[in-house]
Each structure stands twice: as structure tokens, then as C-alpha cells.
Design a protein that fits this description.
Elements (H helix, E strand, L loop, with lengths): L5 E6 L5 H6 L5 E5 L1 H4 L8 H14 L4 E5 L27 H6 L1 H14 L4 E6 L5 H20 L10 E5 L2 H5 L1 H4 L5 E4 L1 H9 L17 H16 L3 E4 L10 H7 L3 E4 L4 H9 L3 H11 L5 H11 L5
Parallel strand pairs: 1-2, 1-8, 2-3, 3-4, 4-5, 5-6, 6-7, 7-8
Helix pairs in contact: 3-5, 5-6, 11-13
């Protein structure tokens, strides 16, 4: 039906770009930069980061490369950094909270990303934003870094797009407000689901409660997309749900603009998208959003959506 939907990939290191190109994806929807910081003895220098981001941008030519600032904390610790011991690390000093506590490290990464931005279509994305105050603060820091580069006469793309992850219930509820301050959203379903349902996704005793098909999760995603589109910004999804075959048609019906996933899922998801029209999926999604249990939703999808060749 001539509706364009972008299929992008998630990567963790520059070496993974070749698989993205091999699958002919439309871009990189999530570059998890924290992996550059792991399995080493010290923080990577600005120059080292710059070279990595530059190589990815060049290989992807003018396809989008969304670089997420490092998401350290939670289940991702650094051996060379003395993290505070926390009772609930997933609710603690992680991602943007850590960056705002170590602005020196944050600025080093932003400098590297901005310097690399002239070599391709780089966008910057901030993780774990939960308040407008945080977003305003990180945007202010970004502007300070830009001013510093200008003073040093170092080239960068001045109008680089900025976005934020939507992965906390507060960000989802305030999506209409956040949408006025960024160029795009990317829904991080892995955390959005666990925070919305109060379920630790790594806990085997309650992992059965963790589901992207929970009505609360689906209503939240739908609200985020509607709020973004009202402000004329686009919405992607980079959590595991973006590559879930049964969920893809529902997300199409909601109007999701970009799906970002493991390279191994790209061809299957492209095939699924080609089997459906957006208008038909809107009707499906409207019914799904009225349902009240996970079982009810899954039964309806199994009976009404083609997801297998």
C-alpha cells in the first residue's frame, strides 16, 4: 500500500556494521555505545571513540546511524569503575543519571559523536530520560560541547538530530511534552515493559509475567506513538519487541515508523510487513487495544495475522 516503514538494526560495536550492510537494513536504529566501555581497563579516549563512530558512519554512507550515549549501570558495570552498591540497580544510578553525575565523561563522548557527525547521517539519542529537567539539562550540555568545538574550530554537523529513549512509565505518560523538545523517540521495550509491569525480566521466578502483549504495555506504546505524531516527530522501537513476528503487525497498525532489531531478524520482519496493509492493521490494532488479557490478545493474533512463510 506504498507505506514506507524503516527496518534498522541494533549494534554494540563498530565491527557489527558489516552484518547490517549484508542484510540491506535501512540504517542503525541503536548503537549501544556502552559496549565500547566494557572489557577494558579504562575509559576509551575521545579519539578512540571518534574513530569508532566515524567508521560506522562512513560504512553506512548516508543511512541513519543513531548513537545512544552510554547506558552504564543496571546489569552493565565497568570493572575499572567503583559503582555504588545499590539495592535496586535498575532503579539506581544508570544511563543518563550516571552521565549527569560524570559530566566530564559525558562531554567526552558527545565531542566524539559530534566530530564524527560530518562523515554520515549520525543522530544522538539519550537513554533512560524520566523527567523534563533531565532532558533540558542534557540538551544544555550538548550545546556547551558544540560551543567548545566551535571555539576550537573543529568541524561538526550543527543540526544533528537528537532523540530520546522512551523506557520509563514517566516518559511514556509525558510523551506529549517530551515530543516538543526532541526530533524523534525510540521506544526501549525491554525496560519499558519491566518498569510498567514491575517485573524484573532477569528474575526466573517471575519472568512469565514479563510480556510485550500485556494490555498496559500495548496501550502505553500506542499513547507514545500518538503523542509523537501529534507533534510531527517520528517514532522507532529498538527493544526486542521490534523483532517479535506476532507484534510487528500490531505496531504497524499503531503507526510505528521505524523498527530496529538484531540483523538476524531483518529479513523475516521485512517479509511480515509485506504481507499486510496499514489500514487492515489499524483495524486489528483497534480491536487489540480493547482486549484485557495477554491470552486473549495472543489468541486473536494467532487467528488473524500471518507471520510465517
Amino acid at each position: 500500500d506504498q507505506v514506507k516503514i524503516e527496518i534498522a538494526c541494533n549494534i554494540g560495536t563498530p565491527d557489527e556494521v558489516d552484518r547490517v550492510i549484508e542484510k540491506n537494513a535501512d540504517g542503525i536504529g541503536l548503537f549501544r555505545t556502552e559496549f565500547i566501555y566494557m572489557n577494558r581497563n579504562d575509559f576509551p579516549s575521545e579519539e578512540e571513540q571518534y574513530k569508532g563512530y566515524k567508521s560506522v558512519a562512513q560504512k553506512m554512507e548516508q543511512k541513519p546511524v543513531i548513537i545512544r550515549t552510554f547506558d552504564i549501570g543496571g546489569d552493565k558495570e565497568l570493572s575499572y569503575l567503583d559503582f555504588p552498591k545499590e539495592m535496586n540497580p535498575f532503579l539506581g544510578c544508570r544511563a543518563i543519571r550516571f552521565c549527569l553525575g560524570r559530566i566530564d565523561l559525558f562531554k567526552t563522548q558527545l565531542r566524539a559523536i559530534l566530530r564524527a557527525s560530518i562523515f554520515g547521517n549520525i543522530k544522538i539519542m539519550f537513554p533512560m530520560i524520566s523527567t523534563l529537567e533531565e532532558l533540558i539539562q542534557v540538551k544544555k550540555i550538548l550545546e556547551e560541547v558544540k560551543e567548545s568545538l566551535k571555539n576550537e574550530k573543529i568541524a561538526f554537523h550543527e543540526k544533528v538530530e537528537i532523540g530520546m529513549m522512551i523506557e520509563t512509565p514517566s516518559a511514556a505518560l509525558l510523551a506529549d511534552i517530551f515530543a516538543k523538545h526532541v526530533d524523534f523517540f525510540s521506544i526501549g521495550t525491554n525496560d519499558l515493559i519491566q518498569y510498567t509491569l514491575a517485573v524484573d525480566r532477569l528474575n526466573p521466578h517471575i519472568s512469565h509475567l514479563y510480556s510485550p502483549y500485556n494490555p498496559a504495555v500495548l496501550r502505553s506504546i500506542n499513547h507514545i506513538i500518538e503523542a509523537a505524531h501529534r507533534e510531527n516527530i517520528w517514532v522507532g522501537m529498538c527493544g526486542e519487541a521490534a523483532g517479535d513476528p506476532r507484534l510487528v503487525p500490531v505496531l504497524i497498525g499503531m503507526g510505528l515508523d521505524e523498527f530496529s532489531m538484531s540483523p538476524s531478524s531483518v529479513l523475516e520482519v521485512k517479509w511480515i510487513i509485506q504481507q499486510h496493509s496499514k489500514e487492515d492493521m489499524k483495524i486489528l490494532t483497534k480491536k487489540i487495544l480493547q482486549m484485557t488479557t495477554v491470552d486473549q490478545i495472543l489468541r486473536h493474533l494467532d487467528n488473524n495475522v500471518k507471520v510465517h512463510i
